[in-house]
Amino acid sequence: MTLIKSISGIRGTIGGKTGDNLTPIDAVKFAAAYGTWLKGYSAKEKLTVVIGRDARISGPMIHNLVVNTLVGLGIDVIDLGLSTTPTVEVAVPLEKADGGIILTASHNPKQWNALKLLNEKGEFLSGAEGEKILQIAENEAFDFADVDNLGEITENNAYMDIHIDEVLDMHLVDVEAVQAAKFKVVVDGVNSSGGVIIPNLLEQMGVEVVKLFCDPTGHFPHNPEPLKEHLSDICDLVVAEKADLGIVVDPDVDRLAFISEDGEMFGEEYTLVAVADYVLSRTPGNTVSNMSSSRALRDVTERHGGSYEASAVGEVNVVELMKKNKAIIGGEGNGGIIYPELHYGRDALVGVALLLTYLAEKRMKLSELRKTYTAYFMSKNKIELTPEIDVDKILVTMADKYKHEQISTIDGVKIDFAENWVHLRKSNTEPIIRIYTEAKSQAEADALALRIMDEMKVIAGI
Question: Is the pLDDT assigned to residue 1 strictly greater than 60?
């Protein structure tokens, strides 16, 4: 059982001992820390926070604890109930709220939950702000409101529909073109919020929808991370239904993967590449992704005359560099699309609407679109951490070993070779070291990963 406290929020497994897992006491403590920080951060006398959750089994319990902790601090709550991460991000500025909390552990299995924390723009907090909240939680420096100054709860169940409306209003989304294309699409909603909002979006775009795992019970039918090894059911169903494509999202709907009409993965890394290709074809500009993402985005960006830069891993880091470089689109290679026209957050709905518009415009199959991009292959691996493993020693030693190559230590260690690369970093969300490699063939990417992992294990003595 695990509790991970980081600048991006608190994430842990349900049950167990306080301080070691995400127990009710831990949920209250960190909600109180966020509310306390918000009261010091904002100049307003009366504050409002938007709260939403995915469909996890523990969601209602954590939701009630967090909402009523904020009420106890004298903060008003706009309760969206079952929602998505990007929906809450959209709702915060529309409601002129002072912050937001999404209760979701994103791609983690059902025993996990988390508090994702937003500022008044509906964006994730900076590292410095997150650090202050951790300090408040550590000191338990809370000052709750008296009985006459408790916060109030307002329920608003309309925001998934509002979010859809905002997406359909984007200037590069052509609903009429998509309707005319008469697409048939299979949707895997992993029995969470995506099983509600993605079919609704598609139906409003005139798409015939075949639902798979779209009942928001929180009982995930497979590992909820949208990777090839977890998606055999939808791959088979796309072919059986003679569908044009398949759409897969994670439980909080900020990650997006596509299945081509032949039942093959389009490639999670290529979600951002394809959507960026469309956006850049209409509005040339710069792009940003993190340094664990494919080189294919760089290739597409340069083809359209723009410049590409890589940030440290983490949505807040991508957003910061996007703003600095005035990027018109960016995101992460895990299927996260960030399109600032709507908001600075990963949004699967944005990706779906833009990609369908692009396919309708080009009148080509998804597999044909995939062949227009440079073929890169990634290997994504991890080493489970134990208390005996000295992560810093491993990273320093690996950087020194390959010091004659192009090295970046902005986030862990990235080694750029002429024809491939490897990125080693400690995860922000799980007790693991991630080892990502990319090359011009899967065999080469896998072989590079195995070689690097063997070298790391020797250093670690495991």
Answer: no
Kindly list the distances between the CA atom of residue 25 and the CA atoms of 30, 290, 414, in Å, as whole numbers in the listed order.
9, 34, 38
Place of tokens 């090894």: 229
Cβ(95)–Cβ(167) under 8 Å? no
**Per-residue pLDDT tens digits for 30-39:** 999 999 999 9
Are 406 and 298 in the same domain? no
The 10s digit of each residue's pLDDT in 209-266 is: 999 999 999 999 999 988 889 999 999 999 999 999 999 999 999 999 999 999 999 9
Q: Look at residues 35, 37, 21 and name the one whose alpha carbon lies nearest to residue 135.
A: 37
Q: Two tokens at 227?
A: 């990777």
* Structure-token match 């957050």, residue found: 345
300 and 168 housed in the same domain: yes
Phi/psi of residue 162, each to 5°?
A: -65, -40
Return the structure tokens found at 269: 């890394």
- The answer to whether residue 70 scores a pLDDT higher than 90 is yes
Question: Do residues 115 and 171 both lie within one domain?
Answer: no
3-class DSSP string for 159-200: HHHHHHHHHHCCCCCCHHHHHHHCCEEEEECCCCCHHHHHHH
Q: Which of 8, 83, 106, 292 is catalytic?
A: 106
User: How many Å apart are CA 203 and CA 165, to the nearest integer?
Assistant: 12
Domain boundary among 339, 370, 401: 370
Top pLDDT among 391 and 187 is at 187
Residue 126 annotated among the catalytic residues of the structure: no
Whether residues 130 and 180 fall in one domain: no
Q: How many domains does the chain have?
A: 3
Among 370, 392, 419, the domain boundary falls at: 370
Domain co-membership, 202 together with 109: no
Where helices occur in 263-347 by DSSP H, the ranges are 268-282, 296-303, 315-325
CATH number of the domain enclosing 301: 3.40.120.10
Kindly state whether residues 338 and 229 are assigned to the same domain: yes
Residues 47 and 190 reside in one and the same domain: no
The neighbour count for residue 128, using CB atoms within 10 Å, is 8
Residue with the two structure tokens 């065999």: 443
CA 192 to each of CA 3, 195, 214, 224, 244: distance values in angstroms, whole numbers, following the listed order: 23, 6, 7, 10, 23
Alpha helices per DSSP H over 205-314: 232-240, 268-282, 296-303
Boundaries of domain holding 82: 3-157
- 368-381: average pLDDT: 94
